[in-house]
Amino acid sequence: MTKYRYLFLEALRASLFEEQLHIPNDITREDWEQLFKLASDQNVLPYITPSFLKEPAFIELCADYIPILRSNMMQALSYQSQNDQHFLHMYQFLSAKGLFPIVVKGIVCRSIIPNSELRISSDEDLYIPQGSYKAYKEALSELGMQLLPHSKEVEDSSYEVGYHLPNTAFQVEIHKGLFNKDSQAFRNMNHLFEDAFANAIIINCKGTNIRSMAPTDPLLFLILHALKHFLGGGFGIRLVADICMYALAYGSQIDWVQLHKRCLSSHSFIFAAGLFQIGKEYLGFDYEKACYPVFWQEQGPDDIEPLLDDLLDAGIFGASNMTRKHSANMTVQAYSSRGDGKPVTSGLLRSAFPPLAAMQHKYPMLKQHPALLPFAWLDRIAKYRKETAKHNPDNNAADSIKIGKQRIELMRKYGLID
Q1: Residue 286: helix, strand or coil by DSSP?
Q2: For residue range 143-186, what is the model confidence (pLDDT) as tens digits?
Q3: In sequence order, which residues have a C-beta less than 8 Å from that of residue 126 and are 6 or more positions away?
Q4: For residue 221, how many C-alpha atoms fall within 13 Å in the half-sphere facing its CB?
Q5: At CA 57, angle to CA 53 and CA 60, rounded to 5?
Q6: Most buried of 171, 179, 286, 301, CB within 10 angstroms?
Q7: Kind and range of the H or E element at 352?
């Protein structure tokens, strides 16, 4: 591992536990600049900045960066503080209407870490009971919130619908389901949370009572959320930190045996155990304090470095480059078709021309007009070529296939496919 990557992980660990960061003597200005780029790609630069901003070893090499980093940190603080206020006001408003959605991710994860206002979330996520969307839509409209442009066309068909508060940065996603029921890869995951509302608990965030799933369920959701993004191009180290810090906070209340069974049902156990091992090795995750069982420890992967490298290469949600994003067609297809007896390479054509059900989420008109599927394929290919040319003229389908094959081998290594 490079020096700057190791120092980045150390800075994140120090920030999560409010500990002093020890900076090696051989760190150069170039190392710091690479760390800034990595931390920015992983969307944690404001969060880790306090760990080194006042350290003499940093000031000596990068004093000219301090005003920029301070400004970046203050902007993040203002952004997240205002969004938290908007969210809590919205939740109180919904509660007064007799609506009690379950909060997933976001503020639930931030509430258990120090300096949470420096940990930026682009939106908040609310999980609502089936059949209740109309009531939520009316309440949010009364509050002045509006549908996001991309949600207007798919409001009725999509499992998630985005809203924003005009003239602010605040956004919220309303989840009719936690996973896309039209996706072959993820639709069976919803049944793992069938009792979420019956078993919901109340937690306090900044003086406001909000509903969360019972302790085992949020951890399972975070793991499956990581899996979803892993298949979709990748995810960053921040989500590993969320998983490990949640397990530390609620470990004694987590049913690790039940969690093991549910991870096995989605072929994600070795993958999940690998994330906890990364947490232990690099982020201060304490097995004993988290009540992390011995059988989880013993059945984990032999080598976590390839998974860690993938996380650090991926950016926040696999968006480090367009080639990587488009390779997701192969990884999602490989996971969807596991166990069907066909070689993984047989999914290449299917990833280029997905079936009707897989296309309906982005092309809702296909539900009424399935005969338009070939035209949707052509539109999808045209958008792919335009997008890759815009972001990187050197990106091409061959590069996506190469990365896709490499990541399929990674999936095999961590038990996601045979």
Answers
A1: coil
A2: 999 999 989 888 888 899 999 999 999 999 999 999 998 888 89
A3: 101, 102, 103, 104, 136, 172, 173, 174, 175
A4: 25
A5: 90
A6: 179
A7: helix 347-352
Order across the sheet with 102-104: list the strands: 146-147, 160-164, 171-175, 124-127, 102-104, 208-212, 201-205
Rounded Cα gap, residues 140 and 149, in angstroms: 16
> CA–CA separation, 161 vs 127, rounded Å?
11
Instruction: Please tell me the distance from the alpha carbon of residue 291 to that of residue 270, in angstroms, as a whole number.
Output: 18
Global pTM reads 0.88
Cα–Cα–Cα angle for 291, 256, 240, nearest 5°?
A: 75
Local confidence band at 365 (pLDDT 50, 70, 90 cut-offs): confident
- The domain locations on the chain are 3-73, 321-413
- Name the 3-class secondary structure at 300: coil
Q: What is the mean pLDDT of residues 339-368?
A: 65
Which residue has tokens 């980045």?
8
Question: Which DSSP string corresponds to 355-394?
Answer: -HHHHTTT-GGGGT-GGGHHHHHHHHHHHHHHHHHHH-TT
The 10s digit of each residue's pLDDT in 113-127 is 999 999 999 999 999
121: closest CA among 76, 74, 89? Answer: 76
Among residues 271, 211, 283, the alpha carbon closest in space to that of 247 is found at 283
Query: Per-residue confidence at 103, pLDDT binned at 50, 70, 90?
Result: very high
Tokens describing residue 328: 């997701």
Residue from 335, 338, 281 nearest 308 by CA? 281
Measured distance CA(332)–CA(355) in Å, rounded: 13
Q: Phi, psi at residue 372, to the nearest 5°? A: -85, 5
Rounded to whole angstroms, the Cα distance separating 225 from 190 reads 12
Please, are residues 274 and 223 in contact by the beta-carbon 8 Å criterion? no
